[in-house]
Amino acid sequence: MSTALSVNLNKIALIRNSREGNFPDVLEFGQLCLDQGAAGLTVHPRPDQRHIRSGDVRNLAELVKRTPKREFNIEGNPFAKAHGDYPGLMALVEQTQPDQCTLVPDSNDQLTSDHGFDLTSASDALAPIVAKLQAMGVRISLFMDPDPVQIRLAGELGVDRIELYTGPYALQHGTAQGETLLSQYRRAAEQAVSSGLGVNAGHDLNLDNLSDFLTIPAIAEVSIGHALTVDALRLGMPAAIQAYLAICQQSR
Ligand SMILES: CC(=O)[C@@H](O)[C@H](O)COP(=O)(O)O
Ligand SMILES: NCC(=O)COP(=O)(O)O
User: Fold this and answer.
1) Could you tell me the keywords of this UniProt record (predicted)?
2) Which of 194, 193, 197, 227 shows the shortest CA–CA distance to 210?
3) Is 202 touching ligand 2 by the criterion CB < 6 Å?
4) Which domains are seen in the chain, by residue range?
5) Per residue in 98-125, pLDDT tens?
6) Mean pLDDT across the stretch 64-84?
């Protein structure tokens, strides 16, 4: 079985938002990703709407629902307050019923995601959120650092999957320290599997570092946006998606 590729469309929206109008059209690029065989689409709307807007989330949810066997994944912090057109993560999930919701502990002013949950302090607050998502029938994934102790706590919280935060791996890839880190991610994935959790991964994965990461056998899904969008500038979006799919299909 290959690893599913979920294309993150944040950066397409970021370019669109730099001008008035709807160019590039996020929906058109979402369709293109699905036409090219991506397993799903990911968005990470942030309260300041700097890239993906609430309307994009609704439109993309409809697009994915119309396309058989594809998944829509919404990422975000469930504790971030509603702000302007952003109704909050849980309201967006309720409105759009995605296949998966990935909970991420980002503060509003972060440039990008840079750490997973500390469940020694966050589990109590997350428990009612997990219960609400379970009642909606949405698969729940938690954004986590590769720490087996923390991942055991994710299992105890009753979520379905974790998403391993791969930023540090990407930064060290190709160095001796990167090899050591990869072993750490491997142990974290093993802990997830023995805790009954599926394993996703994402952040700064790219055409250079993805195949080494996917030597970890249990990775169900990778969500990739930043590097894939840059590759699309060089290669064109269809060729960029095919290049990532080729790596994903060799895995597992
Ligand atoms: C959780 C995660 O790693 C991604 O969602 C990534 O943070 C993309 O968000 P930005 O596009 O805002 O950097
Ligand atoms: N969950 C990670 C994601 O959606 C995309 O991260 P990146 O490829 O934009 O770094």
Assistant:
1) Cytoplasm, Pyridoxine biosynthesis, Transferase
2) 227
3) yes
4) 4-249 (3.20.20.70)
5) 999 999 999 998 999 999 999 999 999 9
6) 97
